[in-house]
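Now for a chain:

_____
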Amino acid sequence: MNQARPVYLKLRDRIAAAIMEGDYPEGAMLPSVRALAAEQGANPLTVAKAYQQFQNDGLVEVQRGVGMYVVKGAAERLRRAERERFLQEEWPDLRERMDRLGLDIAQLAERK
């Protein structure tokens, strides 16, 4: 993960991974801003900013006074977006490094 990335985006990535891995399945309530801030050792405003990104992207819905819930299809939408980001931003550098090292996909697949 890029160290220059803002903290709220790193936090967003962690939450997105938890949604994709099923830690927060569809319909599940996310931890409160304060609870997640305490758990992650983050500023509550930073957590709120990360959560706002999910809300802007339509991946969570807010029930005022109750909490924030993961919407149906959020994990798959996140997976598609992460795949695209990986292929556009990370894969070219990895592929270039593999070429420099003389590695190919078959060799990597054998290593598991």
Q: What stands out?
A: The mean pLDDT is 93. DSSP finds five helices and two strands in the chain.
